[in-house]
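Run log, item B.
One chain of 318 residues. Sequence copied directly from the ordering sheet:
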Amino acid sequence: MDYNMKKRPVSISIITMVMVLGTSSFSFGQKDSMLVNGKKIEMFTSGMGNNQHDKPVIVFENGMATRYIWWKTVIDAVSEKNSVFAYNRPRIGASEDDSLPPKMKHIVDNLRKMLLEKGLYPPYLLVGHSFGGAYIRSFASYYPDEIAGLIFVDPIDFTKKQGYGKLPYLAIGLTEHQFDSLFAEPYDDFLEKLYAEMPKYYVEEVKISREISATSFEECTRNPLPDVPVHFIQAGGYKSNPDEKPTIYDREEMFRVDNNIKMKRWIELLNPLKYGKLFYCSNSGHFIQTDDPELIISSINLALKDYQKIQKEKSGSR
C-alpha cells in the first residue's frame, strides 16, 4: 500500500483536544478523540516530532478492560526518540460504546485505521499487555509486513491449545476428576453471576477472551510470527490475595508451575527467530509496566536496535 497517497475520509474523523498534560499525568503529549464508525475513541500521541519515514511507531495495546494511563512511565521515556500511540478500546475510559463485541479483527482494524488517519504509517513496534497480547499477535497475523517488532508484556497465553489448561493442575498432583470438579457446572453459574455484576466493558472482553481460548487462539496465530524482534516479558512475582477462598491446591505452586509451562512454549516460539528474546522479572506482578517499567523501556530500545540491524542486513544483501 502507498501510505503517502491522499486518504479518503471514509468513516473516520478526528476531534483534536490539544493539551499539555501536567505532572499528575504524562510529562508531555497530546490527548485526542477520534470518531471511528461514528463513535468517539480516546487516544494519546507523543513524540510526534520523531515521526519519520521508515522509523518505527511505538503502539501500545492495553490489558483487559484497562486504560492507557498504565503505560505512563514507559511512554514518557520512549517518546523522547520515537513517535508513540496509545488509546482506549471502545467502552473503556472516555471511549464510547460502539455496540460491537471486541473481536480480534474488529479491534485490529480500528487501531490500524486510527494510526493511518493520524499519519502514523508502518512499520509498527507493537507493545501489548495481558489480553492486549492477543490483539497485537492478531495484528501481526493479519498485517505481518507492517510489523517492526512485537513485545508481549505478561500476555494471555495465545500458545495454549485445547486441553492444555489442565496441564498445570495435573503437574501439581491433581487428578482428572479433581480438575473436572473445579470447572464443572457450578463454575459456569459463577461466571454468569460475575457477568451480571461486572461492568459491560469488562464483560465484553472476558467473553471474547473465552471465545478465542475455545478456538485455541486460531485467529491470533493464523499466520506465523514475522521474523522481527519479538520479546516476551514474564512476571514472576506472586501476590497472594487474603480474600480468596481456600482451594484444594496451593495457589503459589500453581502459579510457578503454570509460568514454567508457558515459558517453555514461548521459548519454542522464539527459537526460529533471529531476534527473539524472553525476560523474566521475579519481583514484578502482572502489571510490569508499573512494577518494573525500566524493563519494558529497555526491551523497547533493544527491539528498536535489532530492527535497525535487520534493515541494514536487508540493504546489504541487495
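Observations after the first pass:
- The chain is about 40% helix and 15% strand.
- The first strand starts at residue 12 and ends at 17.
Flagged for discussion on Thursday.
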